[in-house]
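fyi for ur records
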Amino acid sequence: MAMGLRIGLELVVGVGVGVFVGWLVDRWLGIRPWGTVGGFFLGVAAGMVNVYRAVAGLGMAVGYKPGDRAVPPPADDEWDED
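which gave:
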């Protein structure tokens, strides 16, 4: 149930943010309704990308790749400058 709520929320928030930013662009540039329309479509695209990432399991930690091994830090003597 949590995954379904997450997917639905990410899609709705993506569209909402896109429409809001488009509305701000409309007010700033005075190009009504094109900023809102463009923001809607960009929001739908961003929401779909977020849903795809959530479903495909791409929402892992930044820089983490399955199979990566932890690399130990260099020993103290490697940093000595003689």
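Residues 15 and 43 are 4 Å apart (CA to CA). thats all i got for now
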